[in-house]
Amino acid sequence: MATPNPYPLLVEVDQYIERLFVSHDMVLEQALNDATEAGLPEIHVSPNEGKLLYLLAKLAGAKRVLEIGLLGGYSTIWLARAIAPKGKLVTLELDENYIRVAGNNLERAGLQSLVDIRQGAAAGTLEKMVKAGEEPFDLVFIDADKNNYPVYLDYAVQLTHTGSLILADNVIRDGKVARDGQTDPLVLGIQEFNRKLAANPKLEAILITVMREALDGLAIARVKD
Ligand code: SAH
Ligand code: DHB
Ligand code: MG
């Protein structure tokens, strides 16, 4: 049996916001259905967080987006829609099966021509991108393996410019990040990421909480002038 949610009021408010501000969308709903049917884990961003990513990309006037962690392409569709029709989104993913599912979802969304999927461990791909002098990105969304978040932050700073946004999912982890004595390497990775984000003199940043099955969060940083 599923554990009862410890935050019923937050869930109620999250559902209220979704009902009002996130319209039903067959493309997004089908993307989630197909991902679940193909056996992908249900760890995509929530509809409300997807809408937030979309709005942040629009507010930043982003044209070039880098995503680290594609899964079935749910967050990718939100971000690609924000930069359509002329933008470019590069997304990094380890798993070939996930890439196949995401490719179909992006095709159905009519976004395939905007999205460049690069297969492999993200740290290696990012290293290659820096060495190749990849054109800088206006927005980076970090959402892959949590223990590597500190590494991804270093690359994100190298691959952006003044005014770029650096976003990262899962930075609250049910509030565990706020407590000392953690042993889970994933939580430790996020704690180190949050400390590095706060201390980086090139960035101005904040964390906001977002609701999922449990309480989680989104990091929002801007590369300083
Ligand atoms: N952004 C997606 C969810 C991503 S889940 C969404 O919200 O819809 C995290 C993804 O990171 C998974 O698909 C996982 O396969 C991928 N991943 C994990 N470790 C990775 C690594 N070292 N390099 C690249 N991708 C990785
Ligand atoms: C996990 C990864 C995510 O990106 C997420 O949003 C939730 C959970 C995970 O690996 O468990
Ligand atoms: Mg996530």
Could you characterize the architecture of this molecule?
With 225 residues, the chain is an alpha/beta fold. Helices cover 43% and strands 22% of the residues. It has helices at residues 8-21, 26-37, 47-59, 74-83, 96-108, 122-131, 149-158, 185-199; strands at residues 64-68, 88-93, 115-119, 137-142, 160-169, 203-211, 215-223. A seven-stranded mixed β-sheet has the order 3-2-1-4-5-7-6, with helices on both faces. Strand 4, helix 7 (149-158) and strand 5 (160-169) form a beta-alpha-beta unit. 42% of the residues are buried.
Q: In which order are the strands of the major sheet placed?
A: 3-2-1-4-5-7-6
Overall mean pLDDT: 96
How many beta-strand segments? 7
Could you give the order of the helices and strands?
HHHEHEHEHEHEHEE
Radius of gyration: 17 Å
Range of strand content: 15-25%
Shape: globular
